[in-house]
Amino acid sequence: LKEENASLRSKINKLQIFSETQADKMRKLEKKLEENKIKEEKEAQDLEAMVQHVEQNLQLMTKRAVKAENNATKLKQENALLQVQLKNYKTENEALRSGQSASLAVVKRNADIALQNLLTVITNSRSSIKQLVSGAESLQLVADILKSIDRISEMSEDGQ
């Protein structure tokens, strides 16, 4: 009976030591889990801030693109008006050549005005085209950033 008691006490001591070891491991794992939670929360906050920044940039680029598009439409309308004026001036010029009224000086002045208007439209059109290209490049940059965010989140999920 004494031997059995001693054997049982020995087993109890071993079980207590094992239990304490397991409890230590459990505490370490709980601490590590809490550290990982804090790290993941910070990463999520950083990612959310980055997404918000990208969204703001995207909204800004969209506004710029809409403005450039509106400007291009306005210039197209102005160009169409000037084309009509040019056609009228050409008609008037032909009428003058065929001997109808009005002097050559008026025709020359009208042609100069039409030329100046056309040069102005060309200059404005070039500026608008540059703005559209710049807006498109900016939108491409935003799209690339969004793709990078997807890759980061995929890498983050794979790392877990």
Brief account:
Helix content is 95%, strand content 0%. It contains 2 helices and no strands.
Helical percentage: over 70%
CA-to-CA gap between the ends?
Answer: 54 Å
Based on helices, strands and strand pairing, what is the structural class? mainly alpha
Strand percentage = under 5%
Number of strands: 0
Poorly predicted runs = none
Overall geometric form: rod-shaped
Report the order of strands and helices: HH
Whole-number average pLDDT?
Answer: 86
Radius of gyration of CA atoms, rounded to a whole number = 39 Å
How many H/I helical runs?
2
Q: How many strands, which pairing sense, and closed or not: the largest β-sheet?
A: none
Question: Could you explain the architecture of this structure?
Answer:
The chain has helices at 2-97, 104-159. The protein is mainly α. The chain is rod-shaped, with a radius of gyration of 39 Å. The two termini are 54 Å apart. The relative contact order is 0.08. The mean pLDDT is 86. Residues 19-92 form a coiled coil. InterPro entries: ENTR1.
